[in-house]
Every structure is written in C-alpha cells, then in structure tokens.
Specification:
The chain is mainly alpha-helical. Helices cover about 80% and strands about 0% of the residues. The protein is built from 20 helices and three strands. The radius of gyration is 23 Å and the shape is globular.
Amino acid sequence: MAPTSTSTSTNGRVIGLALAGALGGFLFGFDSSVINGAVSSIEEDFNLTSTFTGIAVASALLGCAAGAYIAGRLADRYGRIPVMVIGAILFFVSAIGSGLVFGVVDLIVWRLIGGLGIGIASVISPAYIAEISPRKLRGRLASLQQLAITVGIFAALLSDTVFAELAGGANEPFWFGLDAWRWMFMAEALPAAVYGLIALRLPESPRFLILKDKEKEAREVFARIWPSDDVDRGIRDIYTSIENDRLAERTGTLRGDFFGLKKIVWIGIILSVFQQFVGINVIFYYSTTLWQAVGFDESNSLIYSVITSVTNVLVTLIAIALVDRIGRRPILLTGSIGMALSLGAMALAFSQADVVDGEPSLPGSWGLVALIAANVFVVAFGASWGPLVWVLLGEIFPNSIRAKALGVAAMAQWIANFAVTVSFPPLSTFSLTFTYGMYAFFAALSFFFVFKLVPETNGMSLEEADTLLPPKGSAKKKAAAATTKGK
C-alpha cells in the first residue's frame, strides 16, 4: 500500500505544478478573447472604421509573434520562473492600460504589450509542464495547456457578459464612472497578479538547472515531485536531450529542395496556416459583434458567445481523450468535413440576410441556422484542428530541426491569425456570405491537404516522421521495422 500512497502523492504534486504552470495558458486565452465584448463600444467611442477596428483587435497578435520569438532565449538565459513572472507583469500592465485608454493608438500599444505576454505564455507554460512531468504523465499533463487556453477564453467571455449585464450595457458607466467595456479589460489584472505570485513559489525547471550546471538543485526538485526510481533516469534524459539539442544547432537545417525548404517543414507551415484560415478566431474575437449585426441584442449576443466558449472547452476534452486512440489523420479529416459543412451553412444563412439601416438582418429561422452552424463549427474545430495541429507540430519534425521548424511554423500561425483577424471587419462589410464562403473553401481544401500529404504519427517515434509516409499502415510497419533493426 505504501508505494501506491507515495505514487498518488507524487502525482498530486506534479499535477499541482502543471496546473500552476498552465495558468499562463489561461491568461493566453483570456487576453486574446477579452476584447470580444468590447469591440462594438470601442468602435463607437473612438469612431473607428472597420479597418482600424481590425487593426486594434489584431494588434495583440504581432506582440504574440515577438513574445514567442524571445521567450525561449530569455528562458534559457534567466530561467523559466523569471520569464513566467515577466509574462504576468506584461498581462497585468496590458490589462490596466487597455482599460484606461484615451484612443485607438494607445489601445494598440497596450494590446501589443499583452500580445508579448501571450507569446511568452505560449512557449514557457508548455515547456515548463513538459520539463517537470514524469514521462508516464507527460502527454496528459501537456494537454492542460490547451485546456487552460479554452477555459481562459470562456472566463473572458463570461466576465464580459457579467460586466455588460451589471452595467446595463458594455458602453454604460460602471464602477468609478468607467464604462463597463473598460472593466472587461481590467478584470484580467486579477488572474495576472495571481499567476505572478504563484510563479514565484514554483520550483525552477530541472532542465534549466542542469543547463546551468546545478545538478544538485535539479535532483532536489525531482526528489520532491517524482518517484525516487525515476530521478536518475530523468537526469540522464535531460543530459541526452541537451546534447542532442547542441548537435542539432550545429547540423540541423531547414533548407531543402522543395521551394527552398524541406517538404516536412512546408507541411508544418501549411498546417498552421490552415488552422487559422478557416476563421476560428473570428468566432472568438468578433462573435458578439457578429450576433448583434444579425439581430440579437447585446445581452443575448454575449450569452451566445459564452455558450460557444463552453462548447470549445468540452470538445477539447474529447480531442484529448481520442487523439491516441483514433490517430491524428482520421480526426483531422473528420474535422475538415465538419468545418466545411458548418461554414457553408453560415454562408448560406447570410446570403438570405436583409439589409436594415446598413446592417444585415437574418429573417425567419435563418438566425437560428447561423447560430447552430457557428457552434457546430466550433465543435468540429475544437475536437480536431484546434489541439491536433499542435500535437502534429511536436511530432512531425525530426530532432535535428525540431526547434527551428517549430519556430517557423508558430510564426506562420501568428501571421495567418493576424491576417484573418485584421481582414474580417472590412470583408464582413463587403459580404458576410463571401467571407464565410471563403473560410468554408479553406476548410474543404484542408481535407485534401491532410488526405494527400500529412503523415500519421500515432505510435511512431519522432525521428520516423522525418519522411512523408504512405497514408495506410506505414506507422505500424515502420515501428515494427525499427524494433526489428534495434534487436
């Protein structure tokens, strides 16, 4: 009984640390979606054109790219915990600054600062979780990051709804005479402060300690959170990983014969771009404005946005449960079909809209059709392309180029996210039917891309994914071949 008790206690400590580290993911989701409930009020107060509205919403994404780029370098120089604290400070400052803005220019500045925090959290939180987790728990604990992001999105939309309801509208005065939409931004200051305080109490990553020749301190951390028989293995694995990384820095290259890059790098880039070009962040950044535009009042629009975010949380749990049982390709292919059909239904619904006072209005049951289609789209995306693209990006690149290729793919994802976010307001002014039809086209195209080019990595070693694999049966054959060769 004693070993079971010790194992349970150890697992509890590791899960607690992983949850604390995942707070960065929560803030990632919160900061990226909190502007949803404030968009209309900002547009009205500052008299913005659709183009400037898009820039204000998307500005955080440029900060994300920069934050993701510098996070790893800062973490390797100063440690994971100090960089977590920096991220928390950026989130806190951005929350207060965004809530007290005087105009669109300083809003963009504060959103850029918040974006830096998002970029840092997108790198540091999953890295820290992976580095303190025993190998038997690593996959499940790593999934906490994606789950935390979806919970953060839900929390942001819920708090937006609460402030708007209490004040009688997002653009109505609330505490201290400040409009409710300003408190929507400032609400983030509380979880940001909590994240910073918790980060200061977390143990440093054992990998970082060994990088700094502090093996004794690394062993002490492992001794507190891991079973004793795993500590030596963990130390050896870290030394091996560090040596592999150093070798990769000297020998790894992304260059290849396929338009200047290796084909597998292009697959990672295109996966990242498709994940954004289906328009998922339009739902999380603009859904409140969207539902108001088709006839729902502000209160109902906010409530529908919250329902959508809850759906996103639940289907992410489904994806986590199925990814290792069903495989990557079948889930992605099913998700592509679901997204294409639901986006097509939204395009059809908006094609029936009447224009009233310059705004689309869906007659009869078409508003309900659009609402259901939007939530089906979130289900299809959240159970497939949302979490699985990140899983594949961690698996399809060989060790020699993994870090570099991941950086390129992540950068492509932020750029694609920015392009979709900044283009939606002018595109929606032009035609919502065209806009959702375009997203449906990319969703359909993603099906053929996965079917023809994306390898199945379930059950494979990371190095086996260095080459494109035939779609059927290759994973098992290669795994068997590798096992036989090893013997």
